[in-house]
UniProtKB/TrEMBL annotation:
Protein name: Protein kinase domain-containing protein
Species of the source: Ensete ventricosum (Abyssinian banana)
Keyword Transmembrane: yes
Residue span, Protein kinase domain: 526-800
InterPro entries in UniProt: ANXUR1/2-like, Kinase-like_dom_sf, Malectin-like_Carb-bd_dom, Prot_kinase_dom, Protein_kinase_ATP_BS, Ser-Thr/Tyr_kinase_cat_dom, Ser/Thr_kinase_AS
Biased composition (Basic and acidic residues): 809-837
Xref: CDD domains: STKc_IRAK (cd14066)
SUPFAM superfamilies named in the record: Protein kinase-like (PK-like) (SSF56112)
PROSITE patterns linked to this entry: PROTEIN_KINASE_ATP (PS00107), PROTEIN_KINASE_DOM (PS50011), PROTEIN_KINASE_ST (PS00108)
Location(s), subcellular: Membrane
UniProt signal peptide: 1-23
Region of interest (Disordered), residue spans: 809-856
Length: 856
């Protein structure tokens, strides 16, 4: 009877174990909320052998912004038949281009980039040099394909905190970028823990969940390669055979996947790694030694400028009983775990377990990471042995927010600090560079001494001729120059050119030095008929050069305190700014105490004249208005992020947005601009300046200036463009005087169509208008912290333009087209038509502006 009872008990135990494993697997099924699979450059969808379907660009609900539509295919005669069909087409970018993917649930997302420089008759993909970045993380910097060409998948885990994630491809000057396929897929929230065991110094490393990761290696130790269809999260696990330093030191061992169990507490699930990983392992080939120098070693190349997250997977599938396996774990020769006892951690055999380690960049030598397991001399019980089932090596983003190099998304250089204070190595070339710079300065000073003017002793100072503008004692650029000394210098007539120390031929960034005679000739001796603008600084004249080139010539008013200050600020800003959507400074003139700046001429004048007033311009179409707003937003976005510290314009309005002959918008008038707060500051405390109707109320109340003050002003501009009326109109009833306040009231009541420009009736897509108004409304939030950045405003405006273009290209589909995504993602309000044009989904329409769109 007893044997029967024991047999039944044993059977029940086995059944219980099996139920634990199966329930664990069933309870952790994961369906990604965002699942974008994109075959770039393909004409139709591509189905892989594993069943996954990658959609073509036109079919995808992703959003591509590029200056040129270039799709290429591999030449049939040279195409490698062994590569996936995903690698046989590509998108090529000659300029900065961006894919945007709508995100239904923020959090961890996989980004996988498929790259293969196949042969093509027109484009040499192997010569491509480009950078790839998300909104805040550099994924690849100056990437160049392998030669000879090989198929590569770059895999990343990034944290998405917004409702979209963007992938920007930026080719190096004179080169191009390309991409074969892209994946953007949601990852489980608990896939990456926030902490890891630190190696040298020992302790705990926190903040992992905030970092971006690049998967450098993912190995199924002791087993075969695992393809995406056999992984719970679509990952690829390579065999570890090619990474063993001494293959003879290890032997493979495996069991049935049905024997693998996951802990009841959910600390390890099949989402961490599938049972296939835990069912195979490498163990010591010679298990009869206790020599601590006898280890199994995996060797992998690594970037010594980065720290790494190493995840090691263990499952005791070799022991016959508990408490029979003890071993040490080493990383780069340093003890990671001493006397690892899986039995004490899992309380059973064949139970999955993993541990994360943070590896300091300073411990990486010879650009190599070594992972080792070996016996411990303390293995008193059982046979000495050591195992490893799986291994993941992930690069952690550095202080620059980069996974490749030391440049941030905005192009700024960060000198090498790794995350969490993990220091990187000092570049030895810094001393050499400083020495070379010093020698160069000595040579320049010697040459200028040899060429010193005859009357140099009569000059104000030695530095006035020896040093360039930025080193002189008092100049427009000098913040330490008092108003009194500035006035004295302004009124000086001691030399032919009273500002020779300010506008010298050595001045960087001010362009051509015009003579006063040239300026007088260009303006017909400052003829009042040529005046095209007046401000606190003075007047702006239309100038004409001999070759017919038109110029805008700004002449400073010496009696104006405001003009002097604004003039100084304008020089400071424009001398270091160059952008397509900022008015360009061409040159200057400083003869006879004049303050004259020469700009490119903007043939269509200020935006305001095209909205209302007496200028006589025809009204702009809705698409033209969107394009103008996008251009201005790009200019402001560059001001906020493109300069080393950032610049706040402080006077954004429709009269300071100028249009050239092609209606390209450019931001102008930087006289009130201020440097943005540094990283240690939240705002700049300053006296309130700006224009009524556009002024940020929070800035007005607190006298604390931030970039969000420009965002507020731009929100007023957006409503001014939409409604074609001035920001302040005292002739209207009191509640309507301030456009920003009035528009927000109408929007809250659902009556915005009452105040929209009548010229737009019947021409505006409801979806486009909705996105535009959403952007404007967010800009006018009471508190700056609740307003979007100019980058976000720009993105929404570009999206609104795409929605409008969709209706213009497909007028019959403007309010009825609908397509269900095949990605498992939130339905996007935009999809691509057969020719790559955006098509509006019906669920993004809104009744707010139905009367505005009647088709075309």
């Amino acid at each position: 009877m007893r044997p029967i009872v024991f047999s039944l008990l044993f059977f029940l135990l086995l059944a219980t174990d099996a139920n634990v494993a199966s329930s664990a697997s069933a309870s952790v099924k994961f369906t990604p909320s965002d699942n974008y699979l994109l075959d770039c450059g393909a004409a139709t969808s591509t189905q892989l052998n594993d069943g996954r379907v990658f959609r073509s660009d036109p079919q995808s609900s992703s959003f591509l912004s590029t200056n040129e539509d270039i799709k290429v295919s591999a030449d049939n005669s040279t195409a490698d038949p062994s590569v996936s069909p995903l690698y046989l087409t590509a998108r090529v970018f000659n300029g900065r281009s961006t894919y945007s993917f709508f995100v239904s649930k923020p959090g961890r997302h996989w980004i996988r980039l498929y790259l293969y420089a196949f042969a093509n008759a027109k484009y040499n993909l192997t010569s491509a040099v480009f950078t790839v970045s998300t909104d805040d993380i550099v994924l690849l910097h100056d990437f160049t394909p392998d030669s000879p060409a090989s198929a590569v998948v770059k895999e990343y885990l990034v944290v998405v905190s917004d409702d979209k994630v963007s992938l920007t491809f930026a080719p190096k000057k004179g080169s191009h970028a390309f991409i074969n396929a892209v994946e953007v897929v949601s990852a489980p929230d608990n896939l990456i823990a926030d902490f890891a065991a630190a190696i040298s110094p020992a302790g705990q490393f926190n903040g992992v969940s905030e970092l971006a990761l690049e998967v450098a290696y993912r190995l199924n130790v002791g087993g075969r390669e695992i393809v995406p269809i056999n992984d719970t999260l679509g990952r690829t696990w390579r065999s570890d055979g090619g990474f063993l330093k001494v293959p003879a030191a290890a032997q493979n061992v495996s069991v049935s996947t049905k024997t693998i169990k996951y802990p009841d507490d959910g600390s390890v699930t099949p989402l961490i790694a599938p049972s296939t990983v835990y069912s195979s392992a490498d163990e010591m080939a010679n298990s009869n030694t206790t020599d601590p120098n006898f280890n199994i070693t995996w060797e992998m190349a690594a970037d010594p400028a980065f720290s790494y997250l190493i995840r090691m997977h263990f499952c005791d599938i070799v022991s016959k009983s508990l408490n029979a396996l003890y071993f040490n774990v080493y990383i780069n020769g340093l003890m990671a775990v001493s006397t690892l006892d899986l039995s004490s951690l899992t309380s059973a055999l064949a139970v999955a377990y993993y541990k994360d380690f943070a590896v300091n960049a300073t411990t990486i030598t010879n650009s190599t990471i070594l992972v080792q397991v070996g016996p411990t001399p303390d293995s008193a019980a059982g046979t000495p042995n050591a195992i490893l089932n799986g291994l993941e090596v992930m690069k952690m983003s550095n202080a620059a927010g980069s996974l490749d190099g030391l440049f941030a998304v905005d192009g700024s250089y960060h000198g090498g600090a790794a995350p969490g204070g993990m220091a990187t190595k000092v570049v030895p070339g810094v001393g050499l560079a400083l020495g070379a710079l010093t020698m160069g300065l000595v040579v320049v000073m010697f040459c200028r001494w040899r060429r010193r003017p005859a009357d140099w002793q009569k000059r104000n100072s030695f530095s006035s001729w020896l040093l360039p503008l930025h080193a002189s004692q008092c100049s427009f650029m000098s913040s330490s120059c008092s108003k009194g000394s500035y006035r004295n210098r302004f009124g000086s007539h001691k030399s032919k050119s009273g500002y020779s120390g300010v506008f010298s031929s050595g001045t960087i960034g001010l362009g051509k030095i015009f003579t006063l005679a040239e300026v007088r000739e260009a303006t017909r001796n400052f003829d009042e008929k040529e005046v095209i603008g007046v401000g606190g600084f003075g007047k702006v004249y239309l100038g004409m050069q001999d070759d017919g080139t038109k110029l805008a010539i700004k002449r400073g008013n010496p009696s104006s305190e405001q003009g002097i200050n604004e003039f100084q600020t304008e020089i400071q800003m424009l001398s270091k700014l160059r952008h397509r959507h900022l008015v360009s400074l061409i040159g200057c003139c400083d003869e006879n105490s004049e303050m004259i700046l020469v700009y490119e001429f903007m043939g269509n004048g200020p935006l305001r004249d095209h909205l209302y007033g007496s200028a006589g311009h025809p009204p702009l179409s809705w698409k033209q208005r969107l394009e103008v707003c996008i251009g201005a937003a790009r200019g402001l976005h560059y001001l906020h992020t493109g300069a080393s510290q950032g610049i706040i314009h402080r006077d954004v309005k429709t009269t300071n947005i100028l249009l050239d002959e092609n209606l390209v918008a450019k931001v102008a008038d930087f006289g009130l601009s201020k440097a943005a707060p540094s990283l240690e500051q939240t705002h700049v405390s300053t006296a309130v300046k700006g224009s009524f109707g556009y002024l940020d109320p929070e800035y007005f109340r607190r006298q604390q200036l931030t970039e969000k003050s420009d965002v507020y002003s731009f929100g007023v501009v957006l409503f001014e463009v939409l409604c074609a009326r001035s920001a302040i109109n005292p002739a209207l009833p009191r509640e309507q005087v301030n456009l920003g306040e009035w528009a927000m009231q109408c929007q809250r009541k659902g009556q915005l169509e009452r105040i929209i420009d009548p010229h737009l009736v019947g021409t505006v897509s409801p979806a486009s208008l909705k996105k535009y108004v959403e952007a404007a409304e967010k800009c006018l939030a009471d508190h700056g912290v609740d307003r979007p950045s100019m980058g976000d405003v720009l993105w929404n405006l570009e999206y609104a333009l795409q929605l409008q273009d969709a209706v213009m290209e497909h007028p019959g589909e403007g309010s009825s087209s609908e397509e269900k995504g095949n990605h498992g993602a939130r339905e996007s309000p935009v999809r691509k038509g057969d020719e790559g044009h955006a098509v509006i989904n019906n669920d993004d329409s809104t009744p707010i502006a139905d009367p505005l769109f009647r088709g075309r």
